[in-house]
Amino acid sequence: MDMKMVWSLGIILTLVLHVDARFECMSLKKDVTCNSCLEASRKADKALNNKNMFKEVNLLSNQVCQSLPFDLKIECLKKSRDQIHRTRIQLQEYFHEKSLCNSTGLCHHQSKVPENNEILGKSLSYMKEKPCTGCRRAVRDIVWRLKDPRMKSKLTSALLDYCEEADEHEDQCKQAVYRYGSIILNKLERLKPYDLCLMMGFCDEEISV
Predict the structure, then answer these.
(1) For residue 110, what is the DSSP state?
(2) Which of 28, 124, 132, 134 could make an SS bond with 203 (beta carbons 3.0 to 4.6 A apart)?
(3) CA torsion angle for 63, 68, 72, 77 (degrees, to 10)?
(4) Which segments of the chain have a pLDDT < 50?
């Protein structure tokens, strides 16, 4: 059974907020310069190559996998490790200066960030904050979205669509989505912003929520 899509949802969200919280020095003003964008791209590349960051994400995915039966837990751990690697590559491509700065117009013509670029806009929205504050706000935003039944329905539909590509394992994949999909989404929904950000190294133990 292929559970890749299940784990990619949580892992990608976690990685994105982790990268977002490392951009505290970038300006959010409309006249943001090409140099600022290039600096953010370099910081993203450095963060994504930080083995400690992915070590913490591995710990998080391991905790999620513990809620599954033993046979599925083994499969879950393997798939999550594979997906973490794929996600890192995808994020490196997204935050590469050609994608982040050139294609958005921040460099060369130095035009403002396109308003319809929601992902980039949300990433930039956390950059001006202190790491702990930005991380906690990003997690709260993720949790808030997961509380929307429509969002859960969309995620479930996406997982079922993915199962159709599993060939001979399609039925088994769909059964797993129906049986364990809600468990995983509920586990993500119960994420405590401060605890997660503390585990990832963005907050100090002395700071309370």
Answers:
(1) -
(2) 132
(3) 0
(4) 1-9, 12-32, 109-129, 208-209
